[in-house]
Amino acid sequence: MPNPAFKRRQRGRQDIYVSKDEEESLWCDPFQALVIAERVGLLSGRPDEFVMVLLAAYTGMRFGEVRGLERKYAKLGQVRVQWQLREAQGKFTQAPPKHNGRRSLPIPPFLTALMSDQLKRVDRKMCDCGTHRGDYVFRPPGGFHWGRSNFANRLFRPATDGQLVAKGPRVRHRIMLDVDGRQVVRRGRRTIQALEDRAAEVWLPVVDGLTPHDLKHSHKVWMDEDLIPDVAQAERLAHSIASIKGRATHISDRYSHVSEPMRQQLVAALQKRWEVSLRRRAKTGPSRLPILQELLRPYLRPWVVSSQIPPIGGAEIIEMRNDQAV
């Protein structure tokens, strides 16, 4: 009779299976985040979603926290993460942030200005979903809140992948825009090639497969590159220092605290990243999104003549002009 306490030894090579949750997450740099936010704004036709994506990228807030941001917690120079909106079977409930991570997040000056304008645009209206009430900063047109899959499939994934999300018989083709920045929709028997020939702009992938939650990972990468102290990173992401460092908490970490110079260092680094990404975006030309075009204007030279047709027989001079980045 075999011994019930005997355990067979593992010999030879063993395969290591990595679950989907343990796979390495994607991330984007500030320029890519700006392009994604611009595309999301073009697809929605509103500046609200443009600001929403930038807020997530430059604060590390989760999607539910951005969605649940109330007007009273969006203050000058900072946002307060007090609640999140959880979604279950199409219903939204107000709940504390994950790990009870209530925190105040200082934001750079450019984001302060964008949030100030956003608060002026959005109507003062209390949500009346039945399960919660609040004056929320970001609301979709004709609805109460953005669903995670709805926002990702309609706006975010097409912006990052440059393609429509496959759904039913719909063909997954590149996003195309006309001269006014409106999406070119396939109708009738027109081929994709015919649409691309007529379109003013055809999108290429930015970061294929990026999700809204990956903006939080991107924010972590930016702080690592800017040498932000671990204790300041942990406060911003609502994580423990052990999870930030990937090891058990050392005794010296227990006595670490976030100082005001650390927060100022982080805000200055984020502002610099934004300005660099804006200059880089200006080199690619003007934007069809009005809110971004206003931001790009200081980085664009005035209209200059690039070529002209000489007058013949008293005809007027025709000038071909274009914007050039500083």
Textual characterization of the structure:
With 326 residues, the protein is α+β, with helices and mostly antiparallel strands. The protein folds into two domains: 219 residues, Orthogonal Bundle (hpI Integrase, Chain A); 36 residues, no CATH class. The chain contains eleven helices and nine strands. A three-stranded antiparallel beta sheet has the order 1-2-5. Strands 3-4 form a two-stranded antiparallel sheet. Strands 6-7 form a two-stranded antiparallel sheet. A hairpin with a 2-residue loop joins strand 1 and strand 2. Helix 1 packs across helix 5. It is globular and about 65 Å long. It starts with 29 loop residues before the first helix and ends with a strand. About 9% of the residues have low confidence.
Q: Can you tell me the CATH architecture of the largest domain?
A: Orthogonal Bundle
| Average pLDDT figure | 82
Q: Unreliable runs, pLDDT <50, ≥5 residues?
A: 12-22, 303-321
**Helical content band:** 25-40%
Give a brief description:
By secondary structure, this protein is of the alpha+beta class. The protein is built from eleven helices and nine strands.
Label this structure with key terms.
alpha+beta, hpI Integrase, Chain A, 3-stranded antiparallel sheet, two-stranded antiparallel ribbon, 9 strands
